[in-house]
Amino acid sequence: MNKNFPLAFLLGYLLPGWGHFYLGKKALGLFFSLTVLSIYGIGVLLRGGVLWDEMNILTVLAYTVKFFNGIPFLVTFFQQIFQKITFYFNDIGTTFILVSGSLNVLIMIHLIDVVRELKEKQ
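User: That's the sequence. What structure does it adopt?
Assistant: Structure tokens below.
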């Protein structure tokens, strides 16, 4: 069973958990996907923001972490830009969004272990 490992990482970035699902770890992939997307969704429902008016080192770090939410982040980002939404940032919602991005970074790191495990089996 030959798997394209770069594709697994791309899928894991775009939709959290899908890299694991692609590599055959379906239960784990489903768990990761539901967890990260639920946390992200709660953050959006709590009116967490993905945009800030001022840029400094902390906002750059926050954008980097949020970017790892993949497609859900990109949809929210472009929605907030193009609809010119009045930005009301609820700190709790923004924290949920930051946590979901951070979790996806850890999940992608775990994907490296899954790849190693599959290569050893071959």
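Residues 5-121 form one domain.
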